[in-house]
């Protein structure tokens, strides 16, 4: 196929290109070739590697340690990405270095694009730079994972059918690990040395949800799962709820069977799951709740369209619901505090963000999520003062709007000049804020209007001696020093008015006492999370 040569000036901002990737993985069912899917990703200049602005893909030769650079673009035109289908033969596919690079790059870029297009802003890395995806690294499948602080994701291999199969050829695994990198850049304190087990579990649950729902948003995948769950359909057969939930959860189990994802709980929820020491097990309960909400909404959508739909139409409905719920979850992230997040913070963020975007919940998406979260013991979020700002009437606004969207000092000044906010955040007056971030975002609502907002997050970390920690916060410890922290997220509308606040008070005896617990609890959590805190990977089994 001949492509007209384009100069860089011909490339417009927001221009997209279609890339063929494996819809699930390299091994098709029943000996058939693997399913493929088309993902749309932003156009960018690509060097050999491939290396773009956000990612560098490194592919090691099967034998040895040398990296084999790959070119995905037309010769002489780094802006013209050429997408090629995968070989149908499994052996040829596993040896096809070019398609491996194309698949990893396509899935990584599409995952990043889901976040950026949903939140209406660029997502940073932690630290800044490119994320390096080592698509055929010399590690085991269990050691496949994102490493904090190095911007590196390593993909090992699994033994399948007598072959060594790169885990990077599984779409969900790439999406899962890339999500860890995105979350780490967005909210670094969710996985740092002061993060509790709850934040690590949140990381795992969100990465699993992005992996599962982004793959399930492909109509081809949903259609295949419906066929398999129904064990072959006859004309006029009704696709009932049992078949829908079997198709969705069987799909999630198939991903779990490869190792890096957890099996979501379908039946009874384990008692005391919120105190489990394994972050993967905690996260799996929440993943199960979200998937049950997807199944409920999918069933209701099919009921609205009647029983005369084709299987393809039902599959398309499943993919639409999966993507809508995924975007709701992602949108909720920018409404969550930068530290000490809980499952209820996640639910509140999802509901509040969706309420801003879609005031009328015509099809009950918010109610479905509230119901399923309630079923696992996370109480419903009241819509009364969900913004959290009703208690802050009469705020002073001595701010410069132009600076508010870019200058952390302007946000700190706003907090300082409003004592009611200072008291609510329980900031330690002598300690400066340890981190303040400001980001603008623009999103398009269903009515076609652009919603412009400014999001600001701040963190304060206070180091106290053993005696001071006991006197001021009632914390009992053998340690010489104790670090406590808190913070919050503030959202301002286009006119600079505060419209949302989620605070984690710093010098709060009750909150810090519950978080700190005891030295024994700290030791147990640190031991359980030693393999997860700096390197996100599989179950470790």
What can you tell me about this protein's structure?
The chain is an alpha+beta fold and 541 residues long. 40% of the residues lie in helices and 17% in strands. The protein has 16 helices and 15 strands. It has helices spanning 90-95, 97-119, 171-186, 197-216, 219-230, 241-256, 279-305, 311-333, 343-357, 365-375, 401-404, 408-416, 419-425, 466-473, 509-516, 519-528, and strands at 16-22, 36-42, 55-58, 73-74, 77-81, 131-134, 145-147, 152-154, 157-160, 163-166, 435-444, 450-465, 481-493, 498-504, 535-536. The strands form five sheets. Strands 3-6-8-7-15 form a five-stranded mixed sheet, covered by helices on one side. Strands 11-12-13-14 form a four-stranded antiparallel sheet, with helices on both faces. A hairpin with a 2-residue loop joins β9 (157-160) and β10 (163-166). α4 (197-216) runs antiparallel to α8 (311-333). It is globular and about 70 Å long. The two termini are 47 Å apart.
Low-confidence stretches: 233-237
N-to-C CA distance: 47 Å
Tell me about the biggest sheet? Answer: 5 strands, mixed
* Average of pLDDT: 85
Shape: globular
- Based on secondary structure, the structural category is alpha+beta
Q: Strand order, biggest sheet?
A: 3-6-8-7-15
- What is the rounded Rg? 24 Å
Q: How many DSSP helices?
A: 16
> What is the percentage of strand-forming residues?
15-25%
The count of β-strands is 15
Please estimate the helix content.
Answer: 25-40%
Blueprint of the fold:
Layout: E1 16-22, E2 36-42, E3 55-58, E4 73-74, E5 77-81, H1 90-95, H2 97-119, E6 131-134, E7 145-147, E8 152-154, E9 157-160, E10 163-166, H3 171-186, H4 197-216, H5 219-230, H6 241-256, H7 279-305, H8 311-333, H9 343-357, H10 365-375, H11 401-404, H12 408-416, H13 419-425, E11 435-444, E12 450-465, H14 466-473, E13 481-493, E14 498-504, H15 509-516, H16 519-528, E15 535-536
Parallel strand pairs: 3-6, 6-8
Antiparallel strand pairs: 1-2, 4-5, 7-8, 7-15, 9-10, 11-12, 12-13, 13-14
Helix pairs in contact: 2-3, 3-4, 4-7, 4-8, 5-6, 5-8, 6-7, 7-8, 7-10, 8-9, 9-10
């Amino acid at each position: 196929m001949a492509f007209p040569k384009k100069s860089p000036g011909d490339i417009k901002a927001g221009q997209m290109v279609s890339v063929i990737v494996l819809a699930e993985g390299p091994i098709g069912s029943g000996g058939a070739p693997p399913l493929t899917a088309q993902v749309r990703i932003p156009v960018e200049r690509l060097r050999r590697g491939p290396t773009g602005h956000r990612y560098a893909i490194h592919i090691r030769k099967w034998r040895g340690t040398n990296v084999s650079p790959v070119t995905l673009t037309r010769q002489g035109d780094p802006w013209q990405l050429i997408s090629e289908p995968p070989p149908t033969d499994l052996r040829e596919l596993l040896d096809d270095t070019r398609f491996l690079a194309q698949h990893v790059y396509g899935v990584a870029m599409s995952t990043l694009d889901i976040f950026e297009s949903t939140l209406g802003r660029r997502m940073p890395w932690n630290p800044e730079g490119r994320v390096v995806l080592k698509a055929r690294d010399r590690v085991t499948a269990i050691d496949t994972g994102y490493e904090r602080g190095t911007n590196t994701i390593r993909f090992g291999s699994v033994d399948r059918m007598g072959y060594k199969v790169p885990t990077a050829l599984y779409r969900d695994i790439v999406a899962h690990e890339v999500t860890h990198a995105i979350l780490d850049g967005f909210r670094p304190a969710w996985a740092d040395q002061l993060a509790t087990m709850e934040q690590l579990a949140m990381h795992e649950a969100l990465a699993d949800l992005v992996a599962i729902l982004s793959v399930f948003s492909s109509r081809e995948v949903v259609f295949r799962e419906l066929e398999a769950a129904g064990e072959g359909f006859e004309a006029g057969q009704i696709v009932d709820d049992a078949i829908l939930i079997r198709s969705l959860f069987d799909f999630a189990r198939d991903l779990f069977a490869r190792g890096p994802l957890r099996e979501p709980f379908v039946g009874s929820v384990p008692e005391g799951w919120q105190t489990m020491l394994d972050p993967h097990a905690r996260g799996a309960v929440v993943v199960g709740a979200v998937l049950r909400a997807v199944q409920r909404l999918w069933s209701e959508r099919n009921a609205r369209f009647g029983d005369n739909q084709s299987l393809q139409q039902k599959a398309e409905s499943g993919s639409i619901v999966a993507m809508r719920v995924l975007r709701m979850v992602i949108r909720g992230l920018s409404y969550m505090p930068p530290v000490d997040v809980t499952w209820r913070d996640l639910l509140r963020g999802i509901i509040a963000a969706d309420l801003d975007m879609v005031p009328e919940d015509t099809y009950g998406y918010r109610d479905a999520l509230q119901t399923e979260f309630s079923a696992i013991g996370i109480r419903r979020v009241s819509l009364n003062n969900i913004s959290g700002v009703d208690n802050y009437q009469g705020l002073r606004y001595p701010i410069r709007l132009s600076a508010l969207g870019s200058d952390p000092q302007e946000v700190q000044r706003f907090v300082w000049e409003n004592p009611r906010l200072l008291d609510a955040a329980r900031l330690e007056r002598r300690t400066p804020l340890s981190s303040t971030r400001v980001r603008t975002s623009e999103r398009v609502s269903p009515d076609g209007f652009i919603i412009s907002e400014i999001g600001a997050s701040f963190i304060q970390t206070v180091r106290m001696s053993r005696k001071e920690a006991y006197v001021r916060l009632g914390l009992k410890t053998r340690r010489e020093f104790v670090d406590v922290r808190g913070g919050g997220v503030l959202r301002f509308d286009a006119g600079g008015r505060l419209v949302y606040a989620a605070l984690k008070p710093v010098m709060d005896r009750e909150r810090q006492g519950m978080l700190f617990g005891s030295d024994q609890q700290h030791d147990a959590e640190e031991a359980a999370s030693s393999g997860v805190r700096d390197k996100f990977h599989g179950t470790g089994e």
